[in-house]
Design goal:
- By secondary structure, this protein is an alpha/beta fold.
- It contains 14 helices and 17 strands.
- The protein has helices at 4-9, 36-48, 59-79, 93-108, 124-136, 153-159, 182-191, 211-214, 239-244, 279-295, 297-316, 343-352, 365-371, 387-403, and strands at 17-18, 21-22, 24-25, 87-90, 114-118, 139-143, 164-170, 196-199, 218-222, 233-237, 255-258, 263-265, 321-324, 333-338, 355-356, 358-360, 376-380.
- The strands form five sheets. Strands 4-10-9-8-7-5-6 form a seven-stranded mixed beta sheet, with helices on both faces. The protein has a four-stranded antiparallel beta sheet with strand order 13-14-17-16, covered by helices on one side.
- Helix 2 (36-48) packs antiparallel against helix 10, helix 4 (93-108) runs parallel beside helix 5 and helix 11 (297-316) runs parallel beside helix 14 (387-403).
- The radius of gyration is 22 Å and the shape is globular.
- The two termini are 42 Å apart.
- The structure holds 4'-deoxy-4'-aminopyridoxal-5'-phosphate (PMP).
- 4'-deoxy-4'-aminopyridoxal-5'-phosphate is lined by residues 92-94, 122, 124, 170, 174, 199, 201-202, 222, 363.
């Protein structure tokens, strides 16, 4: 049984008011709120454990290291990775993708090599590759999408050729909510001998992810979108791939021995973790992952699916409603425009009613160009949202529509 009342009580911020109205937080795609257990675990570590991790002989350093490495094991279990060697802590999805783009680019890419991305990518999975494009002269090939917001899989297959080096695609679109058939797409890529990076920023908070079952080569996600703290994220990489990639940044932690003439690098995953890690945030992330696991990712998925379908049905009935992303495989993200009402006006007026939504291009300008719009209003759901909150959103939209 999904105890929504109890779940909401775990998030103190949900009890607050905005302009005298109860907060309706529908900006979970940008970041999620934090349950008490996450904030308390981090506070407790700062108050009672804090010391820099690794190589410290003293009690606190060893204790902090233990918490940090236990967090890595929690992430490993959460993703069902084979080994903690495959779990690299980063600052978030953006850094994880940049890490692969930069190191894979240096190790394997040369002029005219091709990377396959899609029309629905977040800027972090476009611009990271464009930076390598400038350094290496590679080409980006883009999978088109249908009117409903599904990837055109036949076109995807046609993009492969002997120059294809990597596929880098999002699991779930942060604008359209489309859940891409990545398992099937990974099989296709592997049949061409091409590895695959999955941007899991918008999937990890909403569904169980098993990297072994998916057989992806890299998988990136952000802690703050899955009820954890800001400033920490994860890059999963198959050990044989991570072994082949050069370090990303130089500094402490990532080395074995250093001299002015020659430096040897640390083993995995530390080779990619230069400098002091955000070890308080990794503790917070572990608690967030334990929290969602305790509710059950399957339960969260089923609950949010019901909410999404309820919202989509109600939204579709609003006069002059334009919904962007109507795939049959859709999750927790609802992008829309109503008549000629500018997305900024809609967002600002909804805010006055206590409803937090996001407006603009959602870091997906190429997708906006394709749709022929400048931006949308986006309501994105989390595990603590309710049908009553959807009703408040619908009433708010209707009220604003009538004002214009
Ligand atoms: N990819 C997708 C699909 C996203 O939605 C986001 C965040 N909006 C990112 C990447 C970047 O995540 P972060 O800013 O946490 O690095």
């Amino acid at each position: 049984m999904y105890d929504i009342k109890k779940i909401r009580e775990d998030f103190p911020i949900l009890g607050r008011e905005i302009y005298g109205k109860p907060l309706v937080y529908l900006d979970n795609g940008a970041t999620t709120q934090k349950p008490r257990c996450v904030v308390e675990a981090m506070t407790e570590e700062y108050y009672n454990v804090n010391a820099n991790v690794h190589r410290g002989v003293h009690f606190l350093s060893q204790k902090a290291t233990e918490l940090h490495e236990n967090a890595r094991e929690t992430v490993r279990r959460f993703l069902n990775a084979r080994s903690t060697n495959e779990i690299v802590f980063t600052r978030g999805t953006t850094e994880s993708i940049n890490l692969v783009a930069s190191t894979f680019g240096d190790a394997f890419l040369k002029e005219n090599d091709e990377i396959i991305i899609s029309q629905m990518e977040h800027h972090s999975n476009i611009v990271s590759w464009q930076l390598i494009q400038a350094r290496r002269g590679i080409r980006l090939r883009v999978i088109p999408i249908t009117d409903e917001g599904d990837l055109c899989l036949d076109k995807y297959e046609q993009l492969f050729n002997p120059n294809t080096r990597l596929v880098s695609i999002t699991h779930v679109s942060n604008v359209l909510g489309t859940v891409n058939p990545i398992k099937q797409m990974i099989v296709t890529a592997h049949a061409h001998g091409v590895p695959v990076l999955i941007d899991g920023a918008q999937s990890v908070p909403h569904m169980a992810v098993d990297v072994c079952d998916l057989d992806c080569d890299f998988f990136a996600f952000s802690g703050h979108k899955v009820y954890g703290p800001t400033g920490v994220g994860v890059l999963y990489g198959k050990e044989n791939w991570l072994d082949k990639l050069p370090p990303y940044m130089g500094g402490g932690e990532m080395i074995k021995n250093v001299s002015f003439e020659h430096t040897t690098f640390n083993e995995l995953p530390y080779k990619f973790e230069a400098g002091t890690p955000d070890y308080i945030a990794t503790t917070g992330l572990a608690h967030a992952l334990d929290y969602v696991t305790s509710i059950g990712m399957e339960n969260i998925h089923a609950y949010e699916q019901e909410l999404t379908q309820y919202a989509m049905k109600r939204m579709a009935k609003i006069e002059n409603m334009r919904l962007f992303g109507t795939s049959a495989n859709k999750d927790a993200v609802i992008s829309f425009l109503v008549g000629n009402i500018h997305h900024l006006d809609m967002g600002t007026l909804l805010d006055r009613l206590g409803i937090a939504v996001r407006t603009g291009h959602h870091c997906a300008e190429p997708l906006m160009h394709l749709l022929g719009i400048e931006g949308t209003v986006r309501a994105s759901l989390g595990l603590y949202n309710t049908k009553e909150e959807i009703d408040i959103l619908i009433d708010g939209i209707e009220r604003i529509r009538k004002m214009f």
